[in-house]
Amino acid sequence: MELRPVTAASASAQTTRWHAILLAGDRPGGDPLAHAFGVASKSLVPLGGKPMLAHVLQTLLAHPQIGDVFVLAQDPELLFENPALSSFLADPRVRLETSGSGIASSIEGTLQRQWLDWPVLITTSDHVLLDKGTLDWFFDHSADCDVAVGMVDSHAFVADALETKRTWLRFRDVDVTGANLFALNSRSVFPALQYWRSLEANRKKPWRMAWKLGPTLLVSFLLRRLTLIEAFGAAGRKLGVEARPVRIPFARAGVDVDKLADHSLVESMLARQLQ
């Protein structure tokens, strides 16, 4: 399906207006955190008195550069039966999308069905600590490439005195963890999304991801020969896109809620914000 062409008028608007795709689905077999709290979906796990999804959706809708927000889940209507979420449906910018068999294919389908213009932000419903400052930083540093990926380095966690277990990607110059923020800036991302399908099962095993990108990259990764920028350049060339990491200087941007320990940490941080 052909996407709507970008006109000169829409190009200027894109500098200040983003579509957002909010990933709110569950992995096959259900989520352990959802089971622990007795809810139907991880997105409905309560934090600070409301579902995780409500925190992220509220942050996105409040940002002046974000327009439509597409909530992507296996059964999005079921999520919004929750009283803390149903009120969001009164906002015409909230759009519900049914996900497919995988994240990459679901994103690709949403881009094509909705004929979205660029840029497009992708984030997740467990990114509860997402705030305007983080979004501002990411938006300001994610242009002039096809794909930008939010990262937080270990120094930010030390500076903010935030102690939590993360999955670290180790490069010659820095150790980073993901920030669950992605910017898609051009239609060149479609081949990369197709390739992403083969990587999804290995997102917590970076060496397997590197192997799929080629043994040379794998060896370079294992020996920490590449800087972060060099690694993104090499991966981008394999995928046919210009890819760029965006190093976000706020440790909270690198905290998502995957485990009970994460839940306890974020619950305490939200409580301190209200004091």
Topology of this protein?
Layout: H1 8-14, E1 18-23, H2 32-37, E2 46-47, E3 50-51, H3 52-62, E4 66-73, H4 76-79, H5 83-86, E5 94-98, H6 103-114, E6 120-124, H7 132-140, E7 147-153, H8 154-159, E8 169-170, E9 175-184, H9 189-196, H10 206-212, H11 215-222, H12 228-239, E10 243-247, H13 260-274
Parallel strand pairs: 1-4, 1-6, 4-5, 7-10
Antiparallel strand pairs: 2-3, 6-9, 7-9, 8-9
Helix pairs in contact: 6-9, 10-11
Q: Helical content, roughly?
A: 25-40%
* Number of helical elements: 13
CATH level 3 topology of the domain at 1-128 = Spore Coat Polysaccharide Biosynthesis Protein SpsA, Chain A
In CATH, the homologous superfamily of the domain at 1-128 goes by the name Spore Coat Polysaccharide Biosynthesis Protein SpsA, Chain A
Poorly predicted segments: 1-14
CATH architecture of the domain at 1-128: Alpha-Beta Complex
Q: How do the SSEs run, as a string of H and E?
A: HEHEEHEHHEHEHEHEEHHHHEH
Give the rounded overall mean pLDDT.
87
Distance between the termini: 51 Å
Secondary structure class reads: alpha/beta
Shape: globular
What is the beta-strand fraction? 15-25%
CATH class of the domain at 1-128: Alpha Beta
Query: What is the CA-atom radius of gyration, in angstroms?
Result: 18 Å
How would a crystallographer describe the biggest sheet?
8 strands, mixed
Number of strands: 10
Describe the structure in your own words:
40% of the residues lie in helices and 19% in strands. With 275 residues, the protein is an alpha/beta fold. It has a domain at 1-128: Spore Coat Polysaccharide Biosynthesis Protein SpsA, Chain A (Alpha-Beta Complex). Strands 1, 4, 5, 6, 7, 8, 9 and 10 form an eight-stranded mixed beta sheet that branches. It has a two-stranded antiparallel sheet with strand order 2-3. Helix 6 (103-114) packs antiparallel against helix 9 and helix 10 (206-212) runs antiparallel to helix 11 (215-222). It is globular and about 50 Å long. The chain starts with 7 loop residues before the first helix and ends with a helix. 38% of the residues are buried. This is NTP transferase domain-containing protein. InterPro entries: MobA-like_NTP_Trfase (IPR025877), Nucleotide-diphossugar_trans (IPR029044). Residues 35-197 form the MobA-like NTP transferase domain.
